[in-house]
Amino acid sequence: MQVRSLVSPQSVRRPPLDLGPHVPGEVIVRLKTGTALREEDMKILEGAGAMEVERLDFPATETSGPQAPILRIKLNERTSVAEAIAELLRDPAVLYAVPNNTYELQGRPTVTNDPVSPNDLHTRLWGLHNPGGGTSVADADIDAPEAWAIGTGSRNGPLVAILDTGADYNHPDLNANIWTNPGEVAGDGIDNDSNGVIDDVRGYNAFANNGNPMDGHSHGTHVAGTIGAVGNNGIGVVGVNWEARMMPVKIFSDAGSTTTDAIIRGINYATRMGARVTSNSWGGGPANQAIKDAFGTSPAMHLIASGNNGRNNDLTPTYPAGYDLDNIISVGSSTKAERMSSFSNYGATSVDLVAPGSDIYSTTPNGRYGSMSGTSMATPHVSGAVALLLSEEPDLTNAQVRSRLLAAVDTFAAYQGKTVTGGRLNVAKLLQNATDLVERGD
Ligand SMILES: [Ca+2]
Ligand SMILES: [Ca+2]
Ligand SMILES: [Ca+2]
Ligand SMILES: [Ca+2]
User: Fold this and answer.
1) With 0-12 CB in 10 A as exposed, 13-18 as middle and 19+ as buried, what is 278?
2) What is the model's pTM?
3) Ligand 4 geometric centre to CA of 226 (Å)
4) 16-28 pLDDT, tens per residue?
């Protein structure tokens, strides 16, 4: 017996009804084939109202090879974004056409810069080592001191791209652990290493498309300190890694907003420069196929904040954490009392694990220190743990990193049914590997 399908054909591609917040008069377009932008492609774009075309091509990798063109087009005044997308989707040469969606930082953490002398600071790093007392639960931490008995990180270790508001690379507790581009000469106005960016010595400003990733906000500097503030140097704080190789990629303006084209430029730069890990304390807004493809093309492991809406991501996905890619890990936030942070998004199938994110003390610009809360602060604990693991075991694949990371959690009822693992990061278990673990009391 034949079953007749009542489903209509899938071949008609329609633009989404809700385009989400986006840059007016701009569209991101990906073509299907070829690596060159041909004359007939230009005709298609002009037919859809394009006035200006910028290439945002994904870098070729060993697995992907050369990539089909991806373009940011600026439209003439007569054409709306919805009209242009509808027109482009009618052409079989177009793989997809999406808005240049805009995104915000994950929450707006408040900063309290602290004037207290450096010798007092270690007691505030409860996420690394929590002795208990007050509202704190002893050992509600990632067991960093136990991990440091195995390794403390390396300045020749994995390149960690921090996609954020930049970083204060002159901070005395960060400077030595910020990547220096070996192929670039500072201040000569020349792109010495021919990577498309002039004078990108300490990272990249993808938002303004220049070589200076200085942080005028504070969020990215705080994230960097959790991953790799210089350890055992007698000042400030210690990161999960005492030594690290962190590359600030500034995808946000100093006001904390960004666009799809800046995000793609930032991810592509990280890919091109060989990032092994990316740390992403941002999200919200609509799914965007071009951003998903930029993450998917990159061979790096991507640690991504689950979001600060206090909601279930299984029901209402948050992006980029929610993109279904093997190299993305979604991170929720825990408190010093071993509870889910009230602001943290959760999800039994969509949030992989939690890490300390409430009341986190770290570096802030101009040589200062302060506390912030958010899944933004939880994510760099995991990024730092993955970097520490890869500095010890550089040959691990992404699949191995994922399975090691998700096995090396401390499980608690508070995280059951709210995360895939039901647990909180434990970096000592991660480095020890779960098989020969000896449980410790603190
Ligand atoms: Ca501990
Ligand atoms: Ca350069
Ligand atoms: Ca130069
Ligand atoms: Ca320090």
Assistant:
1) buried
2) 0.85
3) 11
4) 678 988 999 999 9
